[in-house]
Write a structure and sequence with these properties.
With 321 residues, this protein is an alpha/beta fold. The chain has eleven helices and twelve strands.
Length: 321
């Protein structure tokens, strides 16, 4: 009789037959950088996560580097917003300043920039509004301006997140035509209109002033559509395909892993982070163990890269081991 428990008998054999392993090398740490001075504001719904001005961010970046986390994903929070989000392509905007600051002072960090408009527009939507909806093609023109600005500031990778049709083709063409043919693109290929984004909107100040984002982000019911979305981005030149959120969409991560010969990323979003933190604070769960198990589930589902607010905490756990 074959007994599968023989290979679970001790820690030694469990280590030898372990199929999935988490590493600090898997993590990207999101950072919220706010325009201004002397800003270090904790985000109430995301315990441990803060908004920083550039003059207060060095301690945070020192810790990220000391933990050997390879990459950060930047979100800029400007002091001025308008209908089009013109600050996104301002040479001296907060995102551009942040890129230059990090590349100068922390050259080992790989800098990925979020390419979108919701933090920069007065209405909180991800592009130009016409007839109470985001105008896809008009927004593409501004996306091109934004990515070129990020590239010129020194970004290592751009990550367009707005779910406008044709974005990756526009970004790839714009970068290629301006001397940045080697700059990679991480596509938010499969981004659902999810309730799990709530705390992020507090963090980034990006709550829509009217309506919602269901006309451009995906319906949570749809699985096959995810493959169509990812196929378009793959064909248009994406280097990495991302699924967002992660924990409630592990099936989608696996679908992309099975169907595309590209690295697959996932975004362990703010609501997923906040739920673990809240339950742990109540004493209902072991927060550290649930954190590690949930991150492992993303890796097991097929994610090569995990964008997570847990990056620092998880790195400390892994380094102890």
């Amino acid at each position: 009789m074959f007994r599968t428990r023989r290979l679970r008998k001790s820690e030694g054999i469990r280590r030898l037959v372990k199929e999935t392993r988490l590493s600090v090398d898997d993590f990207v740490y999101p950072l919220f950088i706010e325009e201004g001075e002397n800003i270090e504001t904790e985000i109430v719904s995301m315990p441990g996560i803060k908004r920083f001005s550039l003059d207060r961010i060095s301690k945070e970046l020192d810790e990220v580097v000391s933990l050997n986390i390879p990459a950060v994903l930047l979100f800029g929070i400007p002091s001025n917003k308008d209908d089009e989000g013109t600050e996104t392509w301002n040479e001296f905007g907060i995102m551009q300043q942040a890129i230059r600051f990090i590349k100068k002072n922390y050259p080992s960090l790989y800098v990925i920039t979020d390419v979108c408009f919701c933090e920069y527009t007065s209405h909180g939507h991800c592009g130009i509004i016409h007839d109470n909806d985001v105008d896809n093609d008009a927004t593409l023109v501004n996306i091109a301006k934004q990515v070129i600005s990020h590239a010129k500031a020194g970004a290592d990778m751009v990550a367009p997140s707005g779910m406008m049709d044709g974005t990756i083709a526009m970004v790839r063409q714009s970068l290629d035509n301006t001397g940045f043919a080697n700059l990679p693109i991480m596509a938010y290929a499969v981004k659902y209109a999810s309730a799990f984004y709530g705390p992020f909107r507090e963090a980034a100040g990006s709550t829509p002033s009217f309506g919602d984002r269901k006309t451009y982000q995906m319906d949570s019911s749809n699985r096959d559509e995810a493959l169509r979305e990812a196929t378009f981005d793959d064909q248009e030149g994406a280097d990495i395909l991302m699924v967002k959120p992660a924990l409630s969409y592990l099936d989608i991560i696996r679908d992309l892993k099975n169907n595309f010969d590209r690295p697959i990323a996932c975004y362990n979003v703010s609501g997923e982070y906040a739920m673990v933190k809240a339950a742990a604070e109540k004493g209902w769960i072991n927060g550290e163990k649930v954190m590690m198990e949930s991150l492992l589930s993303m890796k097991r589902a097929g994610a090569d890269i995990i964008i997570t607010y847990f990056a620092k905490e998880a790195a400390k756990v892994l380094l102890k081991k």
